[in-house]
Amino acid sequence: MPHANHDVLIIGGGVAGLVLALEVADQRGVTLLRPASDDRGASRWAQGGIAAVLSPSDHIEAHIQDTLVAGDGLCDEAAVRFTVEQGPAAIQWLLGLGVPFTRDASPGADYPYHLTREGGHGARRIIHAADATGRALMDTLKAHVAAHPAIHIRDDLTAIGLLQDDAGRCRGARCLDTDGQPIDLPAHDTVLATGGASGLYRHTTSPQPASGEGMLMAAELGATLMNLEFQQFHPTCLYDPQGTPFLISEAVRGEGGRLLNIHGERFMPAIDPRAELAPRDVVARAIDAEMQRTASEHVFLDVRHLGEAAIREHFPTIYAHCAGRGIDIVKAPIPVVPAAHYSCGGVATDQHGATDVAHLFAVGEVACTGLHGANRMASNSLLECLVFARSCAAMLQDASRVPLVSAPATRARAEATPAALAEWRERMRGVMSARVAIVRRDAGLAEAAETLAELQQEIVEVAGRGQPAAELTSLWHSLRLARLTVASARARRESRGLHYNPDCPHHGDPLPRPSRIRLSDLD
Questions:
Q1: Strands 170-176 and 182-192
Q2: Strand order in 50-51's β-sheet?
Q3: Residue 487 CB-half CA count within 13 A
Q4: d(Cα 126, Cα 53) in Å, to the nearest integer?
Q5: Cβ neighbours of residue 349 closer than 8 Å, sequence gap 6 or more
Q6: Are 6-230+344-397 and 418-506 the same fold in CATH?
Q7: Of 90, 78, 89, 81, nearest to 61 (Cα)?
Q8: Superfamily the domain 6-230+344-397 falls into
Q9: 75-97: buried (b, 16+ CB within 10 Å) or exposed (e) per residue?
Q10: If you ran DSSP here, which 8-state letter would residue 364 be given?
Q11: Phi then psi for 233, rounded to 5 degrees?
Q12: Which SS3 state, helix, strand or coil, does residue 372 take?
């Protein structure tokens, strides 16, 4: 059933979507498609903070170089420079909104807010709100969005595909309401802010991670996807098989936390001179190797030496959460394990969030801007959300209007039983976790490609085609994105950043190129 035309349609209500809505709404009407479940998405659970050059003793060039080093030769330097240079203004904008960042009252502080340091950074440049920065950002942004008269929030719809006209332009989205009925939302401009693809894996750092649905919806319209093989695993997720996922922030290591194996031995100094502050890909692989060497299911992150006062001051959320799980981190080390955390790849965009499909934009983790290269440096993700959402808004404010034309609805899939859906998704996640995770091998990738293709065919045969259904459509998007991820990993004949393959362990081309792939490449 078609509804009235919308000016700017934003799909996703994390930090990127909320910032974009606020920045564009003074000039254009905004419809924000924001399911209530977004509160369990990645943005709210971001703990560490936002990286930006704020201290007088820090330098723009230093942040740029740290980012380029972490990206392992695959960053787009222009995108890095653009992001870092826009960072201070973006933080000032947040301060103007009233985000309650933690202040620094220590004598001699050269910046009024406390700045911490995280892996890969050569200086303290992470502004934060204690250890719950994402929650502080989300609460502040949501309050401003709710109060803006030009932003219409829809929390009763789930996007299952994008609409396209005969000229190939994006013309809005097809959604399902709470009763499963299809509703078209035609729009002049559509922005994906749907998050990453960590949900392709069994263990993640978010209770309800995205599984790349937005990436695949863009690909269905012909958009290019880039660098899908670079899936970041956060080194330190709380190990609790019976509980919900919970991230132990990079800032814990930034403040002096030490990694120990199950025998209480520190192992990072022997692996990298930066020890626990090495980039995440290095630390995650080291933990994975140590777990295999000691036949253990986790390692420990120890902060006992910091003292109770410092622990309670800097990490109140982590302290309280661990206490609720029966772990007193003042007296005992924290059991941790790597878990899927952030997608460095996604929908290829320019510095304004534009994709190669007209009138379709992407911001936040769903996008691949070139900032992260082969490995995201800690706390550059929220910075990217802020900078590119504001840049995209600036373009949309000046965008010329193109009259809407008839847009055919995307095709969705028929329903399947909940048990079948759960079993299919678990099989997909099991393959990705076993064969396409921290360490990949040629044989495992080949097996993953074959198994996922067979699973796709099984779903087609069982579910067929028919009326749209949200859960099955989500799985269908996710499975095809998983296959594209495997294809990208098989095509990269080197080890670089987050993509480590012992069968080709060294860097390849001295001038590496991003991997680009389209949905048609699966045919």
A1: antiparallel
A2: 50-51, 126-127, 115-116
A3: 19
A4: 8
A5: 355, 361, 362, 363, 367, 368, 369, 388
A6: no
A7: 81
A8: FAD/NAD(P)-binding domain (3.50.50.60)
A9: bbeebbbbbbebbeebbeebeee
A10: G
A11: -105, 120
A12: coil
What DSSP designation does 145 have?
Answer: H
Strands (E), 165-293: 170-176, 182-192, 225-226, 231-238, 258-260
Written as one string, the DSSP assignment of 12-45 is --SHHHHHHHHHHTTTS-EEEE--GGGGGSHHHH
Q: What residues does each domain of the chain span? A: 6-230+344-397, 235-340, 418-506
Tokens of 498: 């987050």
Identify the CA nearest to 68 among candidates 381, 372, 407, 508.
Answer: 372
* CATH class of the domain whose range is 418-506: mainly alpha
Its CATH class, for the domain covering 235-340, is alpha beta
- Is the distance from CB of 46 to CB of 196 less than 8 angstroms? no
Beta bridge partners of 347: 225, 367
Residues marked active site are found at 280
Beta strands 516-517; 225-226: pairing state: antiparallel
pLDDT in tens, the chain (523 residues): 344 568 999 999 999 999 999 999 999 999 999 876 555 566 776 667 999 999 999 999 999 999 999 999 999 999 999 999 999 999 999 999 999 999 998 888 899 999 998 878 999 999 999 888 989 999 999 999 999 999 999 999 999 999 999 999 999 999 999 898 999 999 999 999 999 999 999 889 887 889 999 999 999 999 999 999 999 999 999 998 888 888 898 889 989 999 999 999 999 999 999 999 888 888 999 999 999 999 999 999 999 999 999 999 989 999 999 999 999 999 999 999 999 999 999 999 999 999 999 999 999 999 999 999 999 998 999 999 999 999 999 999 876 655 555 555 455 556 688 899 999 999 999 999 999 999 999 999 999 999 999 999 999 888 765 556 889 999 999 999 999 999 999 999 999 999 999 999 999 888 899 999 999 998 6
Q: Which amino acid is at 185?
A: L
How many other C-beta atoms lie within 10 A of the C-beta of residue 312?
Answer: 13
CA distance 476 to 470: 10
If you search the block for the tokens 């787009």, which residue do you land on?
Answer: 76
Taking the C-alpha atoms of 190, 49, 129 and 316 in order, what is their torsion angle to the nearest 10 degrees? Answer: 120
182 bridge partner residues: 176
What does 168-199 look like in DSSP terms, one character per residue? S-EEEEEEE-TTS-EEEEEEEEEEE----SGG
State the residue for tokens 């509804």.
Answer: 3
Q: Which two tokens stand for residue 132?
A: 């719950």
Tokens of 308: 């109770």
In the beta sheet, which residues pair with residue 232? 342
Q: Which two tokens stand for residue 446?
A: 């080949």
